[in-house]
Specification:
Elements (H helix, E strand, L loop, with lengths): L14 H36 L2 H34 L2
Helix pairs in contact: 1-2
Amino acid sequence: MRKPERGSMSKPATYWTERAEAADEQRKQQQLELARNLIIAGIEAAFLITGSGIQALEETETAMGAFLAAHGAQFAAEAEAIETKGNC
């Protein structure tokens, strides 16, 4: 007999699962806040190095371009999923 795939069965909502999910969400929000602060620190560093706010933002644009180049396929798939969902 085959075992059900992990995550295929919905778990019953209990006090403890709700608390665990809330803690997971809180941890995710803390991690996102940390990520935002790292981005701000990078922009601040570029500003300190260049002495120009505009140039610092241009450096941010360059970094974002590199990020998009590395993850473009995932973004394309997400955009396609959103477009498909909207056409239902």
